[in-house]
Design goal:
The chain has 13 helices and 18 strands. It is of the alpha/beta class. A seven-stranded mixed beta sheet has the order 8-7-6-9-12-17-18, with helices on both faces. Strands 13-10-11-16 form a four-stranded mixed beta sheet, with helices on one face. A three-stranded antiparallel beta sheet has the order 3-4-5. α2 packs parallel to α4. The longest helix has 38 residues. The two termini are 38 Å apart. Keywords: Amino-acid biosynthesis, Isomerase, Methionine biosynthesis. Its EC number is 5.3.1.23.
Length: 367
């Protein structure tokens, strides 16, 4: 995708030295576009924990490069296992992290030490290329949903939650990919962008992305979506996901479940866009089995923003002495999901629907 006319991916190897890894510091967006240089696996792990890099597919891709960086100083099998274990412990909910690290381990484990570094970089690059193409295909399979609405309305109004665009993936995005394709095809689209408290990934990142691409959008408070649905101002919802179970339950940023309930009550289609790396067929019941990351309460009690004079400041918005809980994700049961948009097509949010698209996963990864 592009920033001010310049094409970028969300992670890349620095062309000047050929080995360090570059990412956007997402904690600085939308106020500043700053690019970080990562030189070892500890810096990669810190970037993931601090959410300088975030988005389930992108976390996996950056972690893959973290393995390559770790092997530059010691290419032994022991070092490989150590790096995979350390990076795998950074965030628990997004299954893409485990998927990418398992793929790296499988590709590198039985190689001679002298071949591991080059193969690690090649495998990480392949993971990135796979994600970019996967997201492009998600866009293509989601586009007909918007075209159908456009065939009977002057404008397509969509609602999305959190950030599932190109800054959350290697390129294109998941939930936003069909929106970008529709906009580029000349279809009049408008996006209601949930602010997504407590970290405001919608207001900060999705709005920034859409604005830079020229897509009409409006930022709304998280609690406004149901009201808009009641008054016919939302044609469909599309969200991303950090993990989808074998029966179609979808874990996503906290607040997604409430949007799905409102959508069901108002007859608004609710679609979940997922790449193959987000499917976890080892889990059946998402509500009971998916681990939900609990983040610092300070993300709830404090807010960071830009003051009228241009300074970036953090302020407290909660009463002093009040405790804060901060579950980072919730799970939307499959019964509330209209369907899933994947790189292989659309399907029902069910085991039968997913098995029809991914038969090899259901044969090899039975619970």
């Amino acid at each position: 995708m592009k920033i001010d006319g310049v094409s970028y991916r969300s992670v890349w190897v620095d062309p000047e030295d050929g080995w360090s890894v570059r990412i956007f510091d997402q904690t600085r967006l939308p106020w500043a576009v700053e690019i970080l240089r990562l030189t070892d696996e500890t810096e990669v792990a810190q970037a993931i924990r601090s959410m300088q890099v975030r988005g389930a597919p992108l976390i996996g891709a950056v972690a893959a490069y973290g393995v390559a960086l770790a092997l530059r100083t010691d290419a032994s099998a022991a070092r490989l296992r150590q790096a995979v274990a350390m990076l795998g412990g950074t965030r628990p909910t997004a299954i893409n992290l485990r998927w990418a690290l398992e793929r790296m381990a499988a590709a590198l484990d039985n190689l001679p030490d002298e071949q591991r570094v080059a193969r690690a970089y090649a495998e990480a690059a392949a993971i990135c290329d796979d994600d970019a193409e996967t997201c492009r295909l998600i866009g293509m399979h989601g586009l007909p949903l918007l075209e159908e609405v456009a065939s009977r309305k002057d404008r397509v109004n969509l609602l999305t939650h959190c950030n599932a665009g190109w800054i959350a993936t290697v390129d294109w995005g998941t939930a936003l990919a069909p929106i970008y394709m529709a906009h580029d095809a000349g279809i009049p689209v408008h996006v209601w962008v949930d602010e997504t408290r407590p970290r405001n990934q919608g207001a900060a990142l999705t709005a920034w992305e859409l604005g830079r691409h020229g897509v009409p959008h409006t930022v709304i408070a998280d609690n406004a979506g149901g009201h808009l649905m009641q008054h016919g101002q939302v044609d469909l919802c599309i969200v991303g996901t950090d993990r989808v179970t074998r029966q179609g339950d979808a874990a996503n940023k906290i607040g997604t479940y409430l949007k799905a309930l409102a959508a069901r009550d108002n007859g608004v289609p609710f679609w979940v866009a997922l790449p193959h790396s987000t499917l976890d067929t080892s889990v059946s019941d998402g509500v009971r089995e998916i681990p939900i990351e609990e983040r610092s309460g300070s993300e709830v009690t404090d807010l960071t923003g830009r003051t009228v004079d241009g300074r970036i400041e953090t302020i407290r918005v909660a009463a002093e002495g009040s405790a804060a809980a901060n579950p980072a994700f919730d799970v939307t049961p499959a019964r509330l999901v209209t369907g899933l948009i994947t790189e292989r097509g659309r399907c029902a949010a069910s085991e039968a629907g997913l098995a029809a698209l991914y038969p090899e996963r259901f044969r090899s990864e039975a619970p």
